[in-house]
Amino acid sequence: MNYEPNDLQKNVEKMTGSHLNNIMQLAVFYTANYEIYAINVAKIQNFVILDEIDMVPNRDPKSVIKGVAQVRDELVTFVDLDSWLGMPKYDPSVFTAGVVCNLNCRRIGFFVRDIIGIVDKYSFELKIPDSRELKILYVTSVKIGDKEKPCAVFDVERLMIDCGFPTEMPPFTPPTKESSAFISKKVLIAEDSGSAARKLTDFFDSLGITHELYPDGAALISRLDSIDIDEVGLVVTDIEMPVRDGFQVIAHIKRSEKLNRLPVVVNSSMTSGGVVEKVKRLGAVDLVNKSDPRALFALVKHYMGSMENADV
After folding, report:
1. Residues 6+ apart with CB under 8 A from 205
2. pLDDT in tens, 185-209
3. Res. 117 pLDDT band, cuts 50 70 90
4. 47, 144, 275, 297: which could form a disulfide with 5 (CB 3.0–4.6 Å)?
5. Cα separation of 301 and 304, whole Å?
6. Taking a C-beta distance cutoff of 8 angstroms, is the pair 119, 3 a contact?
7. Is the pLDDT of residue 111 over 90?
8. Is the pTM for the entire model greater than 0.70?
């Protein structure tokens, strides 16, 4: 089951309407050690063939960072995914393609032995492991030949953190004029990451804005359907979440006669051009990356009130 990177690239750029059916699209691949892993298609910027990569190597033998390369006019850091996952050493000649991810406007790449293909998975088919030590977000299965094989969706954000890339909101100090400048409505938030949720809580507390936090899109949607909509000034949602994701949150709000005037801001590390285009097409006002609190503040200021002469 070998797929050409250019053919798979079309899937990434197209970004289908899978959100309408509670589906996550996964790019499935073999590692150098023939382990079956996957990554959410929405986190991929592009696929590349090895001939396109001329890498400046990292000479530190202990580092999982292999080097940097220019890919389509952009510098990309490439990492040793197998070593990061704790797998045995391998022969680098087994690789056939590379995958470039874009998170928080930072690019990180890794090599694969073979790309198996892109598969659709319903949320109930994605099992969340009890331990974060596994470095994976979900466990599922994919059909290889006539057999179902286990497949792990690895944690790209954790890989980036381990490689020294910031992926979450840094501390934020608001301008001196805060709560009195905002309308007295609340913000509803969907965020499944505990650390990111704490950062958002600190952010809105610093502005004096009342907010409610929910661990997934389904819980947020349930609250929206029951709340007096006049109490809500803004919805902030992550994209990749269990049960119902951020794409589905936006689609639900914009299809609802009761909710469709609510502004929705996506706060996510998934910042590729395809993702930004998709969330705007669904009806979100914008996407800001999780490491840019100033961009989030500017949108909150715009939709929740006016802060005259504030230095954003």
Report:
1. none
2. 999 999 988 888 999 999 999 999 9
3. very high
4. 47
5. 5
6. no
7. yes
8. yes
**pLDDT given for residue 16 in this prediction:** 53
The full DSSP string for 63-79 is -SEEEEEEETTEEEEEE
Q: Which two tokens stand for residue 208?
A: 């004096």
Three-state DSSP at 4 gives coil
| Residue 311 confidence (pLDDT) | 42
**All structural domains of the chain:** 5-162 (2.40.50.180), 179-304 (3.40.50.2300)
The residue among 262, 268, 277, 197 whose CA lies nearest residue 227 is: 262
User: At 311, which amino acid appears?
Assistant: D
Structure tokens at 143: 């059909």
The pLDDT tens digits of the residues spanning 227-266 come to 999 999 999 999 988 888 999 999 999 999 999 999 999 9
Q: For residue 221, with 0-12 CB atoms within 10 Å meaning exposed, 13-18 middle and 19 or more buried, which class applies?
A: buried
Residues contacting residue 49 through CB under 8 Å, at least 6 positions apart:
5, 96, 97, 98
Q: Say if CB 85 and CB 72 are below 8 A apart.
A: no
Q: Is the dihedral of CA 253, 256, 258, 261 positive or negative?
A: positive
Distance, in Å, from the CA atom of 207 to the CA atom of 298, rounded to the nearest integer, reads 12
Distance CA 295, CA 181 (A): 18
In 3D, which of 204, 254, 261, 181 has the Cα closest to residue 229? Answer: 261
80-87 long-range contacts, CB within 8 A, separation 24+ = 80/110, 81/31, 81/37, 81/110, 81/111, 81/112, 81/154, 81/159, 82/31, 82/32, 82/33, 84/135, 84/159, 84/162, 85/31, 85/35, 85/37, 85/135, 85/154, 87/31, 87/32, 87/33, 87/35
